[in-house]
Amino acid sequence: MLERIGVSRIEDLFAAIPEKFRFPKLNLPEPVTEMEVMWELNALADANADVHHHACFLGAGAYNHYIPSLVDHIIRRGEFFTAYTPYQPEVSQGTLQAIFEFQSMMSALTGMEISTASHYDGATAFAEAALMSMAVTNRRTVLLARTVHPHYRQVLHTYLRFKPETRVVEIDLDAPFDLDNDTACLCVQSPNFFGELESLEGLAERIHAAGGLFVVATNPIALGLFKPPASYGADVVVGEGQPLGIPLSFGGPYLGFFCTKREYMRRIPGRIVGETVDKDGRRGFVLTLKTREQDIRREKATSNICTNQGLMALAACVYMSVMGKHGLRKVAELCYHKAHYAADRIAQIKGFHVRRDKPFFNEFVVKCPTSVQELNEYLLDEYDIIGGYDLGKDYPELENHMLLCCTETNTREEIDALVEALTKMA
């Protein structure tokens, strides 16, 4: 078996894992009873910071939004409370209809013609968009903006790591860059990782003229206020659907959305629900365009990482239904105005500088007079405030820069408390 897969010993299978992490010493205590384990777990859970009792200004791809109580009530119904893909339409009409409505609303929100029935998260949806672009164009180069979320970029690099013929070129959108006859797609994000709105006009024409596709990652809440990516020529629109009615939950599960043009319908990764009629002419829903076996045929499949828990898509579907277009717009407006109020106040503090090179949505970059880690520890310990994201971890040139976020859940009093705390720290 080792010879067949091209390695000489078992240890070679773990070469991708850094050596210091391969066989760590697990300093485990002596065995304990189930009751004692529960005591320990409860104590650890009690130590977690609860965003509902702390003012939270941390975003960076996961956002603290208000979730109407109806969302939880609906998804906890026994008919829906499963993560399994509804392969049997005769017993899954409710779930299939909900997923169909999710697809319809995501298509309307992004301006695209079709939507898949969700992916694991925004990062995997983003990587799948690049893979689909390669398949459509039969090309192997991906142009990737550095302002795309670092996790998205890392996942894309991981996907393509063992495809030696592929190439990922990271670019600065504000500087000149070249497109060649091997460019499969140009991948951008707007609002980008820094919360800024990229100037994307004309980029679609450039990449289309070169024969590639235009992939845009976005924040679905921002689409309640700004033009959908379809309006400026996007071929694929992806992103993280967590803001649509899914709690932070200390990291998941989340929801990746993937929307594109009808012409790529048979190229899309993951599932899609179609509307049909039964033999009696009644409206019905079914998984369509591909068989169940398609997802497990390894190299012959469109993708091997296709779908996430249907429960997450259902939660987003219920949230969008409850909010409606006017509710989504109101949430987006509140996020926008509260973030700008916070930015204006912080910009007046001596030693702090707010970056305003581009317009921003609900996140903004602040240059701090001290380390972000030190600042965040001070905010949490002294004011029960969860501070922003340390950008220096992903962008060395942005050491001592913090990414702050505001949503509709942040009150004016919380923002003023943040400003007061930063003023004392300055």
Query: Helicity range of the residues?
Result: 25-40%
- Give the termini distance in whole angstroms: 62 Å
Order of helices and strands: HHHEHHEHEHEEHEEEEEHEEHEEEH
Q: Identify the quaternary structure here.
A: single chain
Number of helices: 11
Q: pLDDT average, as an integer?
A: 91
CATH topology of the largest domain: Aspartate Aminotransferase, domain 2
Strand content: 5-15%
Tally of structural domains: 2
User: How many β-strands, per DSSP?
Assistant: 15
As a whole number of angstroms, the C-alpha radius of gyration is 23 Å
The CATH C-level name of the largest domain is: Alpha Beta
Helices and strands: which structural class?
alpha/beta
Q: What's the main sheet like?
A: 7 strands, mixed
Strand order of the largest sheet: 2-8-7-6-5-3-4
CATH architecture of the largest domain: 3-Layer(aba) Sandwich
Question: Secondary structure elements and their pairing?
Answer:
Blueprint: H1 2-5, H2 19-22, H3 34-47, E1 55-56, H4 69-75, H5 93-110, E2 114-115, H6 122-137, E3 141-145, H7 150-160, E4 167-171, E5 183-189, H8 203-209, E6 213-217, E7 236-240, E8 256-260, E9 273-277, E10 283-287, H9 310-347, E11 353-354, E12 363-367, H10 372-383, E13 385-386, E14 389-390, E15 401-405, H11 412-425
Parallel strand pairs: 1-13, 3-4, 3-5, 5-6, 6-7
Antiparallel strand pairs: 2-8, 7-8, 9-10, 11-12, 12-15, 14-15
Q: What would you say about this model in short?
A:
With 426 residues, the protein is α/β, with parallel strands linked by helices. It has 11 helices and 15 strands.
